[in-house]
Amino acid sequence: MATATTQPSGTPGQEPVGTQPPPETMTWPDTPKFRGFFAPSRIEADVYDLEVEGRIPPELSGAFYRAAADTQYPPRFPNDVYINGDGMIHMVRFENGHADLKTRYVRTKRFELERQARQALFGAYRNPYTDDPSVLGIDDGNANTSIIWHAGKLLALKEAALPYELDPVTLETKGVYDFSGQIPGRTFTAHPKHDPRTGELIAFAYNATGLPDKQIHIYEISASGKVTRSQTFEVPYSSMVHDWLVTRDHFVFTISPMVADPEQLRTEEQYFVWDANQETYVAIIPREEGVSGIRWFRSEQLMETHSLNAWTDGDTLIADHFTTTSGWFSQFPKTTVGPLPERPPFLHRWTFDLKGGAPHLDDATGTYRSEQLIASPGDMPRVDPRILMEKNRHAWIGGMHPDVPKCEVGPMGPPFNSLIHRDDDTGETTFWAPGEHAAPEEPVFVPKSADAAEGEGYLLALVGRRDQNRHDLAILDALDIAAGPIATVKIPFRLRYGFHGTWVPDSELSK
């Protein structure tokens, strides 16, 4: 069993930052991230023919996948962030009205080494100076944030590492996937965008060296998985860039003052620190011209959490996304000015005049018009993926509706108490709430058919039943979520609260 030792300074992994030896027993920290409904589940299981209340629509034939952070061993730091947990994939397979569940850990390098040692070897989130010396230089990727389907491959993603490929039927881990050597760095976004017209995957990477830097790399990947173009640009400081927006004609990056400093990591365990003295910038890059045509805009100090959709109309670019005027303090509480309150994100529409902005950051004076689209806070938005990069009418989000009782506070702030549908043509919203002791997670949209109208389909969302210590998978009519579930698939145990999911139809799985 490996133990923590102090080695000469100067090399990541050789000078732990205030670390303690890992626990000798399987004892979890007594913190909100590791107790109660949010404690690690660690259950790998196959459950066939799940109980169903209602009737599964016959059009649902395929697989729902969702990624979660399910920590395998007690962390080396008691205040470890929730998002540092090991990747666990949950799959519900629909076939002929039946639903089967499969849960499996992603067998990352990190997972296998810690399983062999029977203890945590990797330290604080993304900070190699906090790792056990036995894992010096080894990627700590845990494939826990999102899961996508591209070029016939199921990929589990984490923005701090390269993807892992999984078998879409068995969830067996096939290994690290770098697009056949075409992605040279150590990182890849958890939020690539699929172009529904071309089948391309548009992606980026930041901190690709494994330590903070100012480079962002953009990759355009064909429907067959070939990288057709890669380019790099520089940002003013090393920022957390979790999500972004892509239109048919532009890339949009929000550079927020969640800052990482490579020197600070030697003495501070926390990777990101909110720097209240930094400005927020927006970079808009024309897809055809590339980074040489970059335009910089200034913003009020804020952070983007997740994007909904964006489109270009002549010289106007419209971007819908969730932003907050604080940092993500429930995960990264340290700031340059002391403790600050975390504020919830709200859905905003930014409208840019593309004739504004400046090619150089120092000259950036252009701004944008911002409009709040929904009164209540929320996040994890979705549109019909067939309409991405074009103006959408329908959108669905995880919400905190003011008319619904709040559920138990979770490890990342208050959980959602409802799902909300917004009609952009009318501005009207409707919602569905699963109950006082229940919280829905990110919704996934499934069209009724390939040629169905926008929004005509189903909304799938896992629901945590706090009072029953288990989960459901709710199936709703996407255009009438207020009517409640068409069917509820009952999962007989608790899954750990997860992040992002996807749907893969049988037509793709059969290939």
Tell me the total number of β-strands: 33
Residues in helices, as a percent range = under 10%
Distance between the termini: 43 Å
Radius of gyration, in angstroms, nearest whole number = 22 Å
> What is the average per-residue confidence, as pLDDT, rounded to a whole number?
93
Count of alpha/pi helices: 2
**Proportion of residues in extended strands:** 35-45%
Structure description:
It is a single chain. This protein has 511 residues and is mainly beta. It contains two helices and 33 strands. The strands form eight sheets. Strands 2, 28, 29, 30, 31 and 32 form a six-stranded antiparallel beta sheet that branches. A five-stranded antiparallel beta sheet has the order 1-5-4-3-33. Strands 6-7-8-9 form a four-stranded antiparallel beta sheet, with no helix packed on it. The two termini are 43 Å apart. Mean pLDDT is 93; it is low at 1-11.
Brief description of this entry?
By secondary structure, the protein is mainly beta. Helices cover 3% and strands 36% of the residues.
Protein topology:
Layout: E1 45-47, E2 51-54, E3 62-69, E4 87-95, E5 98-105, H1 109-117, E6 146-150, E7 153-157, E8 164-166, E9 173-176, E10 193-194, E11 201-206, E12 215-221, E13 227-234, E14 245-246, E15 250-255, E16 258-259, E17 273-274, E18 280-286, E19 295-299, E20 303-313, E21 316-324, E22 346-353, E23 369-372, E24 378-382, E25 394-399, E26 418-423, E27 429-432, E28 438-440, E29 444-447, E30 457-465, E31 470-477, E32 487-491, E33 498-505, H2 506-509
Antiparallel strand pairs: 1-5, 2-32, 3-4, 3-33, 4-5, 6-7, 7-8, 8-9, 10-11, 11-12, 12-13, 14-15, 15-18, 16-17, 18-19, 20-21, 21-22, 22-23, 24-25, 25-26, 26-27, 28-30, 29-30, 30-31, 31-32
